[in-house]
Amino acid sequence: MSYMKKFYLVAVILSCTFSCSQEKESDLPESNENSENENSEILYSGTLPVLRIDTEGNAPIVSKEKYLNATYYLDALELDGYESIGNRENPLPLKIRGRGNSSWSNYDKKPYRLKLDSKAALLGLKKNKNFVLIPHVGSVFLREYAGFELGRMIGLPWTPNMTPLEIVLNREYIGRYFLVENIRVDENRVNIFEQPDETTDPAIIPGGWLVELDNYNDPAQIKLQEENGLTLRITYHTPEILSAQQETFLRNEITAMSRAIYEPDKNSTEWENYIDMDILARYYIVQECIDNADAFHGSTYLYKDAGDNQKWIFGPLWDLSFCFYRTKNDFIYNNGYWEKYNWIAEIAKFPRFQEKVREIWSDFYSTQYPQIFERLESFAALCAGADEATRNRWEQYDKRPTDEMLREAKRYLTAQTEWLNEQWSKPFSN
Question: Are strands 50-55 and 68-75 parallel, antiparallel or unpaired?
Fold first, then answer.
């Protein structure tokens, strides 16, 4: 019997056992507001911890801007490797709101932003107040997991951790989610100086930036024209509110970077004065491996620490849902999904960048990369029981079994990387 089949058998047994125990509990009278309704508890699989959230007055979450007061507790269900936090009688306070763009607008299964009142190490993640709940409809979770793991394996400075769990919101089961460390300036995340809002101090302004190359309009954004005529949308996250001096610096800095990237002499090293080339090469390799159609124009973060000679760092990786859609036959900036890839097509023309990519790839592909398939298999097996429960919960959901989605992800990843290895074993062609 295969590993995945064994896992499904165990998941089914666990699910049946857990449902039976819950049916006994459902015979008890519902005497308080924390009692579950008859349709919620029996749906979850029992193979993952359950996070229970109740908003104040059971108010629905309808806003991405306004937080609602709520309480939570994390029930580890006595599963190995997990620890409960709080309980039904003593829930802990938090705030919750919606988040996301297309995922918020287009799907019934919504993403959420959490802000705990006190820092907690939920499910082994490092202590923090701030997390997000990502729904990952269907096979998206395997794409994102693959990208995040590749980022860790290739040596990016920090990549968000994600761990699966099941959610009961206002006593209604809403399926398998992923608890994810969201991107923010923090000692356990983007560990840089946090530049204050609206500062005018010229000694402070050059460092402590966290920004994003975006493909959505945002109020906290500056727009510039790239030398190829495309619009650069730079959403600033830290600082959140800019003084006139901060905005001027950011505009001038991005403009200077863009001009250096578009320098006609591709033997120039001027652009390397602004951007850490080694980290960019690693970040770029991951985006090519997963063939991310959003790379370098959406959810593309950059940050810059304070101090002399600090450069802009590409990363952390984020929102890797638009991947593994085609058999790879070209680089991402030539793939035809979009005509708005910022900077990367031009950067790829620099021989020093080409050589750096080949150097990192040669070592990574032969030593680190082969581990990704075993990690994907383990992660898919961990999620399989909850995926089945989620498919039963939501009509608008990928109905394929988890092992089929895993085979697809492995097939795409193999095709992408074999093609890349063929290309990067010979000189780049521009």
Answer: antiparallel
Angle at which helix 372-393 crosses helix 140-154, to 10 degrees, equals 150
Distances in Å between the Cα of 387 and the Cα atoms of 54, 101, 405 are: 23, 23, 11
Stretches in the chain below the pLDDT threshold 70: 1-42, 336-339, 396, 427-430
| Span 388-406, pLDDT tens digits | 999 888 876 778 899 999 9
Q: In terms of DSSP bridges, do strands 221-225 and 300-304 run parallel, antiparallel, or are they unpaired? A: unpaired
Burial (CB count within 10 angstroms: exposed 0-12, middle 13-18, buried 19+), residue 383: buried
Dihedrals phi, psi of 136, to nearest 5 degrees: 45, 75
Output the pLDDT for position 2.
44
Cross-strand bridge partners of residue 162 = 180
Q: Are the C-beta atoms of residues 135 and 105 closer than 8 Å to each other?
A: no
- 407: exposed, middle or buried (C-beta count within 10 Å: 0-12, 13-18, 19+)? middle
Tell me how far CA of residue 103 lies from CA of 152, 257, 321, in angstroms: 25, 32, 10
CA nearest 2: which of 407, 428, 427? 407
